[in-house]
TrEMBL record:
Its main location: secreted. InterPro entries: Peptidase_S1, Peptidase_S1_PA, Peptidase_S1_PA_chymotrypsin, Peptidase_S1A, Trypsin_dom, TRYPSIN_HIS, TRYPSIN_SER. Residues 41-271 form the Peptidase S1 domain. Belongs to the peptidase S1 family. It is found in: Secreted. Transmembrane segments: none annotated. GO terms for cellular component: extracellular region. It comes from Drosophila guanche (Fruit fly). One of its GO terms (biological process) is protein processing. Keywords: Disulfide bond, Hydrolase, Protease, Secreted, Serine protease, Signal, Zymogen. This is Blast:Trypsin-1. It comes from the Eukaryota. Coiled coil: none annotated. The keyword Transmembrane does not apply.
């Protein structure tokens, strides 16, 4: 169920170790016509400094050019869309983190050591399971401007008409330019039936849609892989997957990979790599083997 949260940033003082798998309970949280696989935000506004400390830029290593959005799961793992990385080698990619301003010569850039594309990814079937995990070569240091995103609980539904926020550096319109400052836009979630009707095709249960009925706001090329967040929280409910072009064209909302449908796969994949941090922020818990260490 989609709920609004007022969510504190993770701090070690809020955590308590419990059991061999280490469940760390947060002490203070209060509930308050064409497919395109490249998916700036249309009619967005510039994000406030530090507003989305988990959003990172997936780049082509050789040029330093922004390619897709992504989100930090912990010190060693990043979440993005499968179509952003399928066919690439780890050496061809890197990630800029800790800044909302894109810069080819950014100081905070980390290399990728492994790419994990969902085994059920089917680009020919409406981009089913369009999700991938990137394992980082070196651990990033968490701090005020570098934070993990919160995952929903497994199979957690998101109700139609829920308010959501999309963040990214994508084009401001089809044929536009990549934005140098991180953008955000408020959208609404559509029901599965309404979304399928609008797209005139049966979408998968593991996909969700968001936009506005009148069009004119939403995702565009360069936003792919980035997060759709439950408004008022750090909970990522969707990953930008595809949309009908031109961008934000009515009556077609953008299509996202539903994160809650893939939480178990994320946990299994991250947990299988025992040499890295395997904790994840899921719902009200931090689940993992290694507690996060944050810098001041």
């Amino acid at each position: 169920m989609a709920r609004h949260h007022c969510v504190p940033r993770i701090r070690t003082s809020n955590m308590a170790l419990c059991g061999p798998i280490c469940l760390l309970l947060m002490a203070s949280a209060c509930v308050i016509g064409v497919f395109s696989d490249d998916g700036k935000i249309v009619n967005g506004t510039t994000a406030s400094p530090g507003e989305f400390p988990f959003v990172v830029s997936l780049r082509r290593a050789k040029s330093g050019h922004h390619s897709c959005g992504a989100t930090l799961l912990n010190s060693d793992w990043v979440l993005t869309a499968a179509h952003c990385v399928k066919g690439s080698t780890p050496q061809q990619l890197n990630l800029q983190y800790g800044s909302q301003s894109l810069a080819r010569n950014a100081s905070k850039v980390v290399q990728v050591v492994a790419i994990h594309v969902h085994p059920g990814y089917e680009p020919q079937d409406k981009y089913l399971n369009d999700i991938a995990l990137l394992q980082l070569k070196d651990s990033v240091v968490l701090g005020t401007r570098v934070q993990p995103v919160r995952l929903p609980t497994p199979e957690q539904p998101t109700f139609a008409n829920s308010s959501a926020v999309l963040a990214g550096w994508g084009l401001n319109a089809t044929g536009g330019v990549v934005q140098q400052q991180l953008q955000k836009v408020q959208l609404q979630v559509f029901s599965d039936d309404d979304c399928s009707d609008r797209h005139q095709t049966q979408l998968h249960a593991s996909q969700i849609c968001a936009g506005v009925p009148e069009g004119g706001r939403g995702q565009c090329s360069g936003d792919s892989g980035g997060p759709l967040l439950l408004a008022g929280s750090d909970t990522q409910i969707g990953i930008v997957s595809w949309s009908v072009k031109p961008c934000a064209r009515p009556p077609y909302p953008g299509v996202f990979t539903e994160v809650s449908a893939h939480v178990n796969w994320i946990v299994e994949t991250v947990g299988a790599a025992a040499s890295t941090s395997s904790w994840l922020w899921i719902g009200q818990l931090i689940v993992g083997r290694t507690p996060p260490v944050l810098s001041p």
